[in-house]
Amino acid sequence: MSRVTDRAISLVTTNEDLIRSVEGMECIVLEAVYQNYAGNLHRAWMAIHRATTIAQMMALHRGLASPSLKFLEPQTRAAFNPAQTYFLLIQRDRSLSIMLGLPHTSLEDRFSTPEALEEYSPNDRMQRIHCAVASRIIERNNGGMYSLIKVQEDDMLLRKAADDMAPQWWLIPNFIPCKSDSTKVLRDTVRIMDQLTHYHMLIRLHLPYIFSSSGQKNNHSKITAINASREILSRYNAFRTSNPAYFYCRGSDFLAFIAMNILCISHINSRSQFRGPENSDAHTGFESLVHSRPSDRGSMECALGILESKARDEHDLISGKLTRIIHHLLTIEANAARGDMYNTSSSKSDDGGLECDGRLTNDGKTLQVHIPYFGAINFERGIVSKSVPKTEAQPDPDISTMSVSNMLSPVQPVEHDQHPSGFDVMSTMGHPVSRMMPVNHYQLPSSDGSIQMNRTDAELPDSMELLPDEDDLQVFILVLNTSLHDDPNIGTSQSARHCV
What CDD domains would the database entry show (predicted)? Predict the structure, then answer.
């Protein structure tokens, strides 16, 4: 098969005299499809870009009618659909570009306007919305800005596209051949690929907020990404166990890999950020995962078994690479479930490859996973959380617009070594001050238990409940001593001296 394909590529799709026609362009698209199924995603991306170049040379992007196009055979002219061919070029280009983190072509997706979408069937409309959302995700990441408002708009667009489909269309196909319908398995395959694409777009749309601080909007993104990951894994396992052609639809392997990363991040964070009664009010968006871990773990182990079988029986390099990373990933998740502490964070990947990849760093203590058009996901052992000081250059992730570099920085609970504004003097003395208010703005409970603010010029209560943390108690006494020394009105208060 490979020898025949290589001969066709050398004689046809690289022959300039043949490819300057509709038939030649279609042959290049077939080459891209073949390379994609064979797992040669970069060759597939290059082939589809050659095909789009031929399409532009023939002015297909201008919407010209078929009489103005060059054909080699008359029967091709009669069956050729310019609009459908134009869409298929964009569809495959966007899919490969977002999968590899490479630029997409300059072909404009003019079919995604609201007026144009109304002309299509629900299934065709959803496919075109997927292309439009993929283009926006790529452009936002390339431009360095990510808008939460735009994310919500795209989320609503995907939701409407899903609602237009019949509810039972979303069920997982069974891939059972039908004697009376020889095309059933093929239609089931196309259907599940559309489903996988839909959930992949949801993950890509909300993935940047998986590391954001808690909040209604951020928690919505986290839950959406988690649910979409489950949907991808369930369909991937059903598709791969029923279809022995392992080379088919190689992109689904990468989708399953991304989904497993999302689920592992979620379960690790649910253990490390929501641990103990003292954190019972710290809603992170992952609290409800505790009861779903066994099912999620089973789905991930099933997907790993499928990839291991492909790597062993088919000597598949892609499956072998993904299998090694997933083994480390599931080991980390299992350790976190047993009580080990891990920190998950994200960063820009300066030396990451152009496919999903991963490696162990920091003497094996950190697993770094690269996801194209997102960056690196870091799993670091032995660290509860990493603090990121909030400055004017690093806005809160809940705002509507933020840069990609800030977006990729994790917003975690503050650690003891972070010094809030107002404690510059005490920060040099080595005291942890993370839970203290700045000088002259601390809170003191009154005799009836209520909180009174700014009591620097008032008499302090005779007794109060001190913080149980010994280090915090030392800092609190230091604050009061400073206030007593600087303010003579407070310094003469016997109750204040008694409190100190």
Answer: fungal_TF_MHR (cd12148)
Query: Which amino acid makes up residue 55?
Result: A
Same domain, 314 and 347: yes
Domain identity same for 210 and 85:
no
**Do 122 and 80 belong to one domain?**
no
Strand 357-361, strand 366-371: pairing: antiparallel
SS percent in the chain: helix, strand, coil, step 5:
60, 10, 35
Q: List, for the chain, all residue ranges whose pLDDT scores fall below the cut of 50.
A: 276-277, 279-281, 384-469, 488, 490-493, 495-500
Q: Which amino acid is at 111?
A: F
Residue-wise pLDDT for 91-101, tens only, equals 999 999 988 88
Angle formed by the axes of helices 251-272 and 317-337, nearest 10°: 10
Mark whether 292 and 210 lie in a shared domain: yes
Question: 11 by DSSP, 3-state: which?
Answer: helix
Amino acid letter for position 478: L
* Residue 416 lies inside a defined structural domain of this protein: no
One DSSP character per residue, 196-254 reads HHHHHHHHHHHGGGTTSPS-HHHHHHHHHHHHHHHHHHHHHHHHHHH---TTS-THHHH
Burial (CB < 10 A; 0-12, 13-18, 19+), residue 203, is buried
Give CB contacts under 8 A, 24+ apart, made by 273-281: 273/385, 273/413
The model's pLDDT over 93-143, given as tens digits with 9 standing for 90+, comes to 999 998 888 888 888 777 777 878 888 999 999 999 999 999 988 888 776
Q: How far is CA 36 from CA 43, 190, 192, 194, 221, in A?
A: 8, 15, 17, 16, 30
